């Protein structure tokens, strides 16, 4: 993280007054793409959380004091950010959050737990979603800026996942964590609205991962089939191989066109939640198909950790789950068509 900061690759679209380059969000997305295309899917996720989610949350909803305190250190890599929404009993259903924050004088007292938190082990700053008014349901949710060194904040060991090994994922515990009033991000009880408004950018970032990783998987597969021989010829000469590659290339090209359209819409403030849901659904489902078909062309070698295609394969699987599962994406799109 420090080396990325020294290279000027953290917080590229953070305002210049806080140490960033003040660039377009497209620069952050381009970084996510580059990491994903090289097969670093896990770190692309961690980078995306820090730069494409936490930093924009602060930039768009933080006070001047909050931004001045956290953003410069996020740009240098001194502070790593994480977002804690998911709980053992609340995944895609954000309205089922049980972590709570109760007012006690000039402080808030935070209690609860979060699971599957990307950057959870390394995080210095965690944006935590907590219930502040149980009677209002989802509309009683608030967001808090939690210093990872606060008393009562505990991190579990790194969760052992089947893929994205370069992304640290943790279970977090909050036991009577006392937060100052100024730790509240945005207005009280505005957390759910903020999260919903920021989801299109998050899903745009996940789609960037999906498409770039698919392109990376295709690149190494094309190289392999032009070198590997079977039955006296390069396997790239078999009709099955050629047709598979043609299908993969076509899928990637179509999804990239949709992604570029959505990226333009986001830059113009026109990307809707249902369009972002369609993009995430289409691109992540495609990524899993592409990784599977490319690995098949490697034969037994593709099933070994020695060959990078295996990493593309295992890293892809989580993409249809986090950031809103494919099932939830389909439901959101259906609602936009039929109404609730």
If you had to describe this structure to a student in words, what would you say it looks like?
- By secondary structure, the protein is an alpha+beta fold.
- It folds into 3 domains: 2-79, Butyryl-Coa Dehydrogenase, subunit A, domain 1 (Orthogonal Bundle); 83-188, Butyryl-CoA Dehydrogenase, subunit A, domain 2, CATH 2.40.110; 192-338, Up-down Bundle (Butyryl-CoA Dehydrogenase, subunit A, domain 3), CATH 1.20.140.
- The protein is built from 9 helices and 10 strands.
- The strands form 3 sheets. Strands 1-4-5-8 form a 4-stranded mixed sheet, with helices on one face. It has a 4-stranded antiparallel sheet with strand order 2-3-7-6, covered by helices on one side. A two-stranded antiparallel sheet has the order 9-10.
- A hairpin with a 2-residue loop joins β2 and β3 (107-118).
- α2 (25-37) packs across α5 (191-225).
């Amino acid at each position: 993280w420090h080396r990325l900061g020294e290279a000027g690759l953290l917080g590229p679209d953070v305002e210049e007054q806080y140490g960033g380059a003040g660039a377009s969000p497209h620069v952050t997305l381009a970084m996510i793409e580059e990491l994903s295309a090289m097969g670093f899917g896990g770190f692309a996720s961690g980078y995306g959380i820090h730069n494409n989610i936490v930093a924009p949350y602060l930039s768009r909803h933080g006070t001047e004091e909050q931004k001045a305190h956290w953003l410069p250190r996020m740009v240098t890599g001194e502070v790593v950010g994480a977002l804690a929404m998911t709980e053992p009993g609340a995944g895609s259903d954000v309205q089922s959050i049980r972590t709570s924050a109760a007012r006690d004088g000039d402080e808030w007292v935070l209690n609860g737990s979060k699971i599957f938190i990307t950057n959870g082990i390394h995080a210095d700053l965690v944006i935590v979603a907590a219930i502040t008014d149980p009677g209002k349901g989802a509309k009683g949710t608030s967001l808090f800026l939690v210093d990872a060194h606060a008393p009562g904040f505990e991190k579990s060991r790194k969760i052992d996942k089947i893929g994205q090994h370069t992304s640290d994922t943790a279970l977090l515990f909050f036991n009577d964590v006392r937060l100052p009033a100024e730790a509240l991000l945005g207005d009280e009880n505005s957390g759910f609205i903020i999260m919903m408004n920021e989801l299109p950018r998050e899903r745009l970032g996940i789609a960037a991962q999906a498409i770039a990783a698919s392109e990376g998987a295709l690149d190494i597969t094309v190289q392999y089939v032009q070198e590997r021989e079977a039955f006296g010829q390069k396997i790239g000469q078999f009709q099955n191989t050629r047709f598979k590659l043609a299908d993969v290339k076509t899928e990637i090209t179509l999804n990239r066109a949709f992604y570029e359209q959505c990226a333009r819409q986001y830059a113009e403030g026109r990307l809707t939640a249902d369009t972002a849901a369609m993009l995430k659904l289409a691109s992540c489902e495609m990524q899993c198909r592409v990784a599977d078909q490319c690995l098949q062309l490697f034969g037994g070698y593709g099933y070994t950790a020695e060959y990078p295609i295996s990493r593309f394969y295992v890293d892809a699987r989580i993409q249809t789950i986090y950031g809103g599962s494919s099932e939830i994406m389909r439901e959101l799109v259906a609602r936009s068509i039929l109404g609730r």
